[in-house]
Design brief:
With 58 residues, the chain is of the alpha+beta class. It has one helix and four strands; from the N terminus they run ββββα. The strands form two sheets. The protein has a two-stranded antiparallel sheet with strand order 1-2.
Length: 58
């Protein structure tokens, strides 16, 4: 993806990517490429949080 501007997290490096979750422009140091998330969203993501999963209990 082509983005221009400074990283909105460190505000010192050129942004290379845009977070798929919040749209924040991020440099390589503040972007988790595998997840497609900025460092802030990646830090908030909890893979053990299952509240969004539908659970049917009988």
């Amino acid at each position: 993806m082509s983005v221009s501007g400074l990283c909105q997290i460190c505000e010192s490096r050129p942004a290379q990517e845009r977070c798929e979750n919040c749209g924040t422009l991020a440099c390589d140091a503040h972007y988790e490429r595998g997840a497609g998330l900025c460092a802030d969203c990646s830090a908030r993501a909890d893979p053990t949080d299952h509240r969004d999963v539908d659970v049917h209990r009988f």
